[in-house]
Design brief:
Layout lengths: L2 H13 L2 H8 L3 H15 L4 E3 L4 E3 L1 H25 L8 E6 L1 H6 L2 H10 L4 E6 L2 H10 L4 E5 L7 E16 L12 H5 L3 E3 L5 H13 L5 E4 L3 H9 L5 E4 L9 E19 L6 H13 L7
Parallel strand pairs: 3-4, 3-5, 7-8
Antiparallel strand pairs: 1-2, 5-10, 6-9, 6-10
Protein name: Transcriptional regulator
Family: Belongs to the LysR transcriptional regulatory family.
GO cellular component, one term: cytosol
């Protein structure tokens, strides 16, 4: 059993097929099939159920997959740490950030880090908070930004921002000059929302369930500029962090009568030692964090 075989094995498991795995690995499909066959012969166990269109893991394959992910992540961690010198002349930071924060909060931090440590490679992945947690567990990224109103027990989390979700309305909307907006008034409007899996959407789903209403969703998109245009042209309203519309005179941010506060944190696998590059990035994010607001 070698590292390459385990990597091929996990790619087949994740892609659900040998051909798709070969495409992702940029190698010929027979090479993948041969590696898996040798792995099964070495273990004297079937690792996949071969169906006509898709392969799935056997019970033995599920066990191996769990250990293989840990092994490959440990190897990747060791390689990164060995490559990094005492000074941050080299290294890599792989971070998942939801689009709202990636577009309006993190750019100055990312540029400041790049300016201080030009030899460190930054890889920023845009995704919803649920997918980010999955990617952290799988080792696809080193850390990510998640909502931690209820901190996950299997992740190390450090809060860097507490901010309020606001109702976003066109400037000429009847409620634009209101001090606050009730949930009933908000849900009476046609809504423009992110797709499921993003904290923006989870906030709305949670509140609608609490008040017992079904949101009237007119548009679903993760494109923030499109959301802002739709709201500005009075085709619906939405909810975003105030920073997203701070410089847009066509839009107004109104707090909810019952405030909706979010705790946003950097997260990584619990018990995982961050590389020097990653720890330095975490330190910079926490250093730049604004003072917490009181709820």
């Amino acid at each position: 059993m070698d590292i390459r075989s385990l990597r091929y094995f996990l790619m087949v498991a994740d892609q659900g097929g040998f051909t798709a795995a070969a495409e992702q690995l940029h190698i010929a499909q027979p090479a993948v099939s041969m590696a898996i066959r040798k792995l099964e012969q070495t273990l004297d166990l079937p690792l996949f159920n071969r169906h006509e269109r898709r392969v799935t893991l056997t019970d033995e394959g599920e066990v191996l997959a769990r250990h293989a992910r840990l092994i490959l992540q440990a190897v990747a961690d060791a390689e990164r740490e060995v490559r990094e010198l005492h000074a941050l002349e080299r290294g890599e930071v792989r971070i998942g950030i939801p689009s709202m924060l990636g577009s309006y909060y993190f750019p100055p931090i990312l540029m400041a880090f790049r300016h201080r440590y030009p030899g460190v490679r930054l890889e920023v992945i845009e995704a919803g908070t649920r997918k980010i947690q999955t990617m952290i567990h799988r080792g696809d990224i080193d850390m990510g930004v998640i909502v931690t109103d209820t901190p996950p027990t299997d992740l190390e989390t450090h809060r860097f921002l507490q901010d309020q979700m606001m109702a976003i309305l066109p400037a000429d909307h009847a409620l634009a000059k209101a001090d606050t907006i009730s949930y009933d008034a908000f849900f009476a409007e046609e809504l423009v929302l992110f797709k499921e899996g993003y904290f923006h959407r989870e906030v709305i789903d949670r509140i609608s369930e609490e008040v017992g209403v079904t949101p009237n969703i007119g548009f679903e998109t993760n494109l923030i500029p499109l959301i802002k245009q739709i709201v500005a042209h009075d085709y619906g309203i939405t909810t975003l962090l105030k920073m997203v519309v701070a410089d847009d005179p066509a839009l107004v941010a109104v707090p909810f009568t019952v405030p909706v506060w979010l705790d946003l944190s950097l997260a990584w696998r619990k018990g995982h030692r961050l590389s020097r590059a990653n720890q330095t990035f975490v330190d910079l994010v926490l250093e730049q964090a604004p003072a917490s607001h009181s709820r």
